[in-house]
Amino acid sequence: MKKILIPSLLAGLIASASVFAALPASLKDKGEITAAIVPNYPPMDFKDTSTNTLTGLDVDLGNALAERLGVKIKWQETAFEQMVSGLVTKRFDIILSGMTDTAERQKSVTFIDYFASGPQLYTLTKNADLNEPADLCGKKVGTSRRTTWPAEIAAWSKENCEAKGKPAIIVSGSEGSADARAQLRQGRLDAAMQGSETIPYLMSQEKDTYKPLGLAISKQFTGLGVSKSNPELAAAIAEAMQAMVDDGTYGKILKKWELEQGAVTKVGMNQGQ
């Protein structure tokens, strides 16, 4: 037994030492990495209501990543709109908060892509006349205006509603996914859109309340963001994240949150369109 365990342990220690050595000197000296998070997107990022502590897939991944890097992690809650600017001005070292990797954001952020999902339409279970995306032509659909999803809904509508002689979907920008859900429950929206990874969680938390409409309308990558001015850190994180994928740490965390369907086998960079 020892002959099996000791080499494995040594290999892990050597790998961790290698990743720590690759970190920028400023982070090694500080011994801490600051991560921006907006805890309002379960099961990716949210607060445990019983303890008021941060939890979710990103929190578990971030804690495991920091351990792998040989530093502590400091979570800093912020507004979504301030994450990219805070990264550029070095208020944060990384963004780890369910952020979609997009070409526009890549102008100032390097993304280490660790999860794949996509925008998915859903409605209330009681809306018996709405059972597939095409049923939403002429209906009002809400989603966070901070994302690319309003434009994606409009593009989908143009191809699947207007091109077929049906009325266009009326797109309504909301203050976030929670706001869209509230408007849906209030009857101000006919349907809403958010990441496919979150809808099963919502359905488990609010039984018989929501139902998905079809599958995700496109594929998107969720990325951990690093400033483009810090390539050393991006490379070290990509190496550490891939090691977590390879040794099963990553898979165990995804399984805990029932998000295995979004797993990646190869950690890529800047794959968003």
UniProtKB/TrEMBL annotation:
Gene3D superfamilies: Periplasmic binding protein-like II. PROSITE patterns: SBP_BACTERIAL_3. Residues 32-261 form the Solute-binding protein family 3/N-terminal domain. InterPro entries: SBP_3_CS, Solute-binding_3/MltF_N. Belongs to the bacterial solute-binding protein 3 family. Its main location: other. Keywords: Signal. Residues 1-21 form the signal peptide. This is ABC transporter substrate-binding protein. The keyword 4Fe-4S does not apply. It comes from Pseudomonas petrae. It is found in: Cell envelope.
